[in-house]
Design goal:
568 residues, alpha+beta, six-stranded antiparallel β-barrel, 18 strands, flat
Length: 568
C-alpha cells in the first residue's frame, strides 16, 4: 500500500529521527537501521560487509535520513554485539557504535508489544532507485515455525513486499507508533525454498528476541516482560512431571478458539498443590521456554534435551502472571500495558473497549487480593477473546466452583462441536481408506481412524461434558484429528509423487531395454539379470522407489559401458 500510493518519507516526522540508512564507504546502500541512543544503531548482521573475520571490522556510513542537514556518521560493529544468522534461521542481529554521538532524544521508541496476528505494521526501507526511502505496510501473520525466532509479515499489496535495502529497518506498530521489531529478510530470499512455494512474504525479528541475543538493548526498551520474575525457570535439571509438561505444551501449541468458537470460553483450570514441586517447575519451565526473551531456538540444550512433547512453541505465551496478592486492577494494568491499549480511562475500561487476543497464564488465583473479583475480570478477558490458563494452589479453593459457573459452556454449542468433529473423523477415515487402497500406507502402519472414533465416543459420554473442562479436551481432540489427517494427506501426496517417478523409471527401463538388440549375445546375457532386477523392483507392491531407482541406474550404466576390450 505504502509503496503503491507513493506516501512520502516525511509523512510522519514526529519521533522518526531514529530511522537511519546504512551505506558502504563508497556510497552504496546496504540496508537500514534503528538509532537506539546517542551512539548505538541496531541492524541486521548481514547488512554489514563480511570481511572474513569472526566479527567484521568493516566501517560503514550511517545517515540520519529524517534529521535535517545531518551529516553521515561512520560506525563499526560494537564489541560482543555480533549475532550472525544461524543455519536454523535464528540470529542475524548486530549493534553498531557511532564514531560521533547523536542527540539522545532521537532514540527509537522500542516497546515489548504483543505481536498478535493481523496487527498492522510498517517500515521505512531504502530499495534500489529510492535512496530517500519508501514506506512498506504489512500485517503480522505469526511465527514462522514452532521454535523459529522470526515472525512472518503479509504485505498489504505486492508493492509492499520488502526488497534489498530494507533489512535492518524498524518495524513500527501503526496504532501505537512503537518499534516492535526489525525487518530481517524477504521470505523468498532463502535459496532452499522451491520457486513454486515462494510467497510474497517477509520476516521480522521481534524486539523480545533481540533482547535475548543482545541484553545490552534492555536499557532502550519499554514495557514489562512477558513472564513475572517469580515464574521464571532456570531451566536446569530434568522434567519431573512429564505428562503434565506435555499437557501444558499441547495447550500452548494449539490455536485459539476465539473467532472459531464464539460463545465458548477458551479457559483451562489447573491445580498445583503447594507441595507439588514437580508440577510447579513444569509450569515455570513451560512459560519460560515459551517466552521469546527468555528462550532460544532448537539448538538450546533445554530444548534439545527435553522429553518429547514438552516444549511449547516460541512466543506462545503473551503474559504469565503470578497474581498472588494482586488486585483485578493491577492485573488489568499488566494486560493493558502488554497491548498498549490507548486512552486515559482505567485499564478495565480500556480492556472492555478492545479485543484481547492474548494467551495468559495466571498463577495463584486463590491467593489473589480479592479472588472473586479477579476471576470475574478473567471472565471479561475470555469474553474479549483471550485464552486463559488459571492456576490454583488449593484443590478446595472456592474459586474453582466459581470457575464452573463463570465458564460453563453452552450445551448446544458443545453438541454442535461434537457433530463437526464426527464429520472430520469420518473424512479422516475416508482418506485412510483411500491411502490404503493407493498403497500410500504400509501394512505395518496402524489404522488411526478407528482410534479416533473410539475417543470421540468417550468424549460424548464424558462426565465433564457440561463443564468448562470439556473445552480443552475437545480442542486437544480436534488438534489430534487434524494431525492424523495431515499425516494421511502427506502419505497420499508422497504416493502420487512416487507413482510419477515409478512411471518415469519404467519408461527409462523400457527405452534402454530396447537398446539391447544392438548388443552382442554375450553382452545381452550379462545385462539381462540387471534388467530383470530393475523390473522386479518396479513391480514390487509397495514399491521401494529408492531401491528401484538404484536398480534402474545400474542397468542404464551397464548398457552405456563399452564392449570389453574397447577403449573407454
Amino acid at each position: 500500500m505504502g509503496a503503491d500510493m507513493g506516501i512520502p518519507v516525511n509523512e510522519s516526522t514526529a519521533g522518526g529521527f531514529w530511522r537511519v540508512r546504512i551505506r558502504g564507504m563508497t556510497g552504496e546502500i546496504l540496508g537500514a537501521g534503528i538509532l537506539l541512543g546517542g551512539d548505538t544503531v541496531l541492524t541486521c548482521a548481514h547488512v554489514i560487509p563480511d570481511d572474513g573475520r569472526p566479527v567484521p571490522a568493516s566501517q560503514v556510513l550511517v545517515d540520519l535520513v529524517q534529521v535535517p542537514d545531518a551529516a553521515p556518521v561512520t560506525a563499526r560493529v560494537a564489541a560482543g554485539c555480533w549475532v550472525p544468522r544461524r543455519a536454523d534461521g535464528c540470529g542475524d542481529i548486530a549493534l553498531l557504535t557511532l564514531d560521533r554521538p547523536q542527540p539522545a532524544e532521537h532514540a527509537a521508541p522500542l516497546y515489548r508489544l504483543s505481536p498478535e496476528p493481523l496487527r498492522q505494521v510498517r517500515n521505512l526501507g531504502f530499495p534500489r532507485h529510492n535512496d530517500d526511502g519508501t514506506w512498506f505496510y504489512a500485517k503480522i501473520a505469526g511465527t514462522v515455525g514452532p521454535r523459529a525466532e522470526w515472525l512472518e509479515l503479509i504485505p498489504d499489496s505486492p508493492g509492499d513486499v520488502v526488497r534489498r535495502g530494507c533489512s535492518g529497518a524498524g518495524v513500527e506498530d501503526v496504532k501505537t507508533g512503537h518499534v516492535i521489531g526489525m525487518i530481517v529478510n524477504r521470505y523468498d530470499d532463502a535459496p532452499d525454498i522451491p520457486a513454486d512455494e515462494r510467497r510474497l512474504r517477509s520476516n521480522m525479528i521481534h524486539i523480545e528476541t533481540i533482547l535475548r541475543h543482545l541484553p545490552l538493548v534492555h536499557r532502550f526498551v519499554g514495557g514489562d516482560r512477558v513472564v513475572d520474575a517469580r515464574l521464571v525457570s532456570r531451566l536446569t535439571g530434568g522434567v519431573q512431571d512429564i505428562p503434565f509438561a506435555q499437557r501444558l505444551a499441547l495447550w500452548l501449541r494449539r490455536e485459539s478458539l476465539a473467532g472459531r468458537r464464539p460463545g465458548v470460553a477458551d479457559v483451562e483450570t489447573v491445580v498445583i498443590a503447594p507441595d507439588d514441586s514437580g508440577r510447579y517447575e513444569a509450569l515455570s519451565r513451560a512459560v519460560t521456554l515459551a517466552d521469546r526473551e527468555l528462550s532460544g531456538g532448537g539448538d538450546d540444550e533445554a530444548v534439545s534435551a527435553a522429553p518429547h512433547g514438552t516444549v511449547p512453541p516460541l512466543g506462545s505465551v503473551d503474559l504469565a502472571i503470578d497474581v498472588t496478592g494482586r488486585t483485578d486492577t493491577e492485573v488489568a494494568r499488566r494486560v493493558a500495558d502488554r497491548m498498549d491499549l490507548p486512552g486515559d480511562a482505567s485499564p478495565l475500561s480500556r480492556i472492555r473497549a478492545n479485543a484481547v487476543p492474548l494467551t495468559v497464564v495466571a498463577v495463584g488465583l486463590d491467593r489473589a487480593n480479592e479472588p472473586e473479583a479477579l476471576l470475574r475480570f478473567m471472565k471479561l478477558l475470555a469474553d474479549q477473546g483471550a485464552r486463559l490458563m488459571l492456576v490454583f494452589r488449593d484443590p478446595h479453593a472456592p474459586g474453582l466452583r466459581l470457575c464452573e459457573q463463570l465458564f460453563r459452556p453452552d450445551p448446544e454449542r458443545i453438541d454442535a462441536w461434537l457433530d463437526e468433529l464426527a464429520d472430520r473423523v469420518a473424512e479422516a477415515a475416508g482418506l485412510e481408506r483411500e491411502a490404503t487402497a493407493a498403497g500410500a500406507r504400509a501394512a505395518s502402519d496402524p489404522a488411526e481412524a478407528p482410534a479416533l472414533r473410539i475417543n470421540l465416543t468417550r468424549l460424548r459420554d464424558d462426565p465433564e461434558r457440561r463443564t468448562h473442562h470439556i473445552v480443552a479436551k475437545l480442542a486437544a481432540f480436534e488438534h489430534a484429528v487434524g494431525a492424523v489427517r495431515e499425516r494421511i494427506e502427506t502419505a497420499l501426496h508422497t504416493a502420487d509423487a512416487q507413482r510419477d517417478e515409478v512411471k518415469e523409471l519404467r519408461g527409462l527401463l523400457n527405452a534402454y531395454a530396447a537398446l539391447l538388440g544392438a548388443k552382442a549375445a554375450s553382452e545381452r546375457r550379462e545385462l539381462f539379470p540387471l534388467q530383470r532386477a530393475a523390473h522386479r523392483e518396479l513391480s514390487a507392491v509397495p514399491c521401494d522407489v529408492a531401491a528401484a531407482r538404484r536398480a534402474v541406474d545400474r542397468f542404464v550404466r551397464a548398457v552405456h559401458l563399452p564392449p570389453e576390450g574397447d577403449s573407454p
